[in-house]
Amino acid sequence: MNPGVSNPLFLGLDLSTQSFKCVVLDESLTLIHEESVVYSCELSGYRTTDGFHKSGNVVTSPVAMWIEAVDLMLSKLKNTVSLSSVVGIGGCAQQHGTVYTAPSIQSSLSSLDPALPMHPQLGELFAVADSPIWMDNSTEELCEEMEKRVGGPEKLASLTGSKAHCRFSIHQIHKVVKAGGWDGVERVLLVSNFLASLLTGDYVTPELSDASGMNLLDIKKKEWDSELATFYGFDVRKKLGVPGPAQDGMPISRYLVERYSFPTTCRVSRFVGDNPATLIGLNLASTDIALSLGTSDVVIRSGDSLSPSPETHTFCHPLHPLSHYMEILCYKNASLVREELKEKYCEGSWKEYEKILKEIKTDLVAAYFPQPEILPFGVTGSHSNGSDDLFTNPPKHIITSITEGQFLAKANHCSPPPTRVVVVGGGSSNTSLLSLIANIFAAPVYRDETTNVAALGAAYLGAMVAGKEVQERQSWELVAEPEEGRKEEWRRKREEYKVLESTF
After folding, report:
1. Which of 63, 172, 337, 395 has its CA at a distance of 20 to 30 angstroms from the CA of residue 287?
2. Whole-angstrom distance, CA of residue 260 vs CA of residue 11
3. Which residues on adjacent β-strands are paired with residue 62?
4. Residues ≥6 apart with Cβ < 8 Å to 387
5. Within 10 A of 492 (CB to CB), how many other CB atoms are there?
6. Which burial class, exposed, middle or buried, applies to 469 when counting CB atoms under 10 A from its CB (0-12, 13-18, 19+)?
7. Which ranges of 414-452 does DSSP label H, i.e. alpha helix?
């Protein structure tokens, strides 16, 4: 580690869908400070809803907003943290999103004026002003075309770790190509290595676990697949660069040294996706699952075996990409559905929502997908085991049945069943929800003490590239256990949900 800096600090950055977050760790890896920038509140001029624009199936976020969020975050940190003591920076970002730079940006990145923020110097230097993000569902035809070309979803999953998904990066890249914008693109970046490039002042290539979420990386060989890369007669690899491991350390930019007083010896990791960062932050055993309750709900587990399936996502492990893997189940209709129920039936009160979940028992089994779902793929609308429309039922039963349905689906899709469930994300503060999860999974539920686990995992990466040894960590609190005497009731409900799901 840097011997010239006393009391060294490590930063972990998380450029997520709704906000930009940062955690600061001291030399003992103790969390000493957290900071955030909420796009819709602090950068309201971009007129986003929860950090994105939506028009039909097209969902994007302004690249300029992300750059301005970085400016704002660094300004906040400068006033609260000794940035001259930061010796390592790690980062993560929402997965699958793509950023398309114009030819002049590389020279601009390396010659930023430290007297000015980044945003006015870089904000217009992008071939595509609004980046497609993980919620985009506009590339279905391109996905079908790729799966047909390679021999079906099973073969594509075996090759890349996942079947074709609209949000996966290669399909978004092909959409730009079909729109005729490819010639004006110098480089294609994932959101993670876009953020890293801002901090290093030069292009950073994708990290292997995040590159696994593109339908482009050969999951076994750890390199871009040549057939997929040349799908439309030209080679996308030339504008992506060679993917590499997260622990590669790079120097911080001259701009950040001069404007914010970072030490010249500060190292920046290759940034990862938010789900891989969550895995780093939690240090799961192979029999555990992490359940991230955020804008999307995500189930994460890891191991040393490779068994890709069209129903799951298999990525390279962010710390052991050559020998281990992580498996992800992703659900788009998650916290925004729970928020809709809270607003519509609970007068905007989470307290009332929790009370209903705790008190109301129902035989109604239901599912509600206002947006096309990821798993099961493409399903929309409302579904129930009742004879009438779901929304003609009593409101309290609607709330309970839809919420239960969200987690019955996850338990049914999760095989083998976990011995422990570790919850993270904003929903982990909902005690009634945690009790529900314990009952449905028939396993104890633990909550990590850190709210921003992805940012914490990123900070560990920052410590690693600065030469700090990061010991295994499990700071979990037992928050819920399965209720005695209800095991058979929940087994029956899981089976009833399987029957319902077969009708979608």
Report:
1. 337
2. 14
3. 130
4. none
5. 12
6. exposed
7. 431-441
SS (H, E, C) 111-169: CCCCCCCCHHHHCCCECCCEEECCCCCCCHHHHHHHHHHHCCHHHHHHHHCCCCCCCCH
Length of the chain measured in residues: 504
CA–CA separation, 481 vs 175, rounded Å?
Answer: 47
User: In this structure, are residues 143 and 231 in contact, taking their beta carbons and an 8 Å threshold?
Assistant: no
pLDDT (tens place) for every residue of the chain, 504 residues total: 666 688 999 999 999 999 999 999 999 999 999 999 999 999 999 999 999 999 999 999 999 999 999 999 999 999 999 999 999 999 999 999 999 999 988 899 999 999 999 999 998 899 999 999 999 999 999 999 999 999 999 999 999 999 999 999 999 999 998 888 888 999 999 999 999 999 999 999 999 999 999 999 999 999 999 999 998 888 999 999 999 999 999 999 999 999 999 999 999 999 999 999 999 998 888 899 999 898 889 899 998 888 888 888 999 999 999 999 999 998 999 999 999 999 999 999 999 999 999 999 999 999 999 998 988 888 999 999 987 899 999 999 999 999 999 999 999 999 889 999 999 888 888 999 999 999 999 999 999 878 788 999 999 999 999 999 997 666 789 999 999 999 999 999 999 999 999 999
Tell the burial category of 242 from Cβ atoms under 10 Å away from its Cβ (0-12, 13-18, 19+): exposed
**Which alpha helices (H) appear in 81-114, and where do they start and end?**
105-110
Work out the angle between the directed axes of helices 431-441 and 487-501 (0-180°, nearest 10): 80
How far is Cα 6 from Cα 9, in angstroms, rounded to an integer? 9
Q: Collapsing DSSP states into helix, strand and coil, what is residue 449?
A: coil
Please give the Cα distance from 340 to 333 (Å, whole number).
Answer: 11
What are the residue ranges of helices labelled H in 323-394? Answer: 335-345, 350-359
Q: What is the Cα–Cα distance from 331 to 313, expressed in whole angstroms?
A: 12
Model pTM greater than 0.90? Answer: no
Q: Angle formed by the axes of helices 431-441 and 395-413, to 10°?
A: 50
Give the 3-state secondary structure of residue 65. helix
The angle that helices 431-441 and 350-359 make with each other, rounded to 10 degrees, is: 30
Phi then psi for residue 351, to 5 deg, are -60, -45
Among 181, 182, 170, 180, CA closest to 212: 170
CB 288 within 8 A of CB 102: no
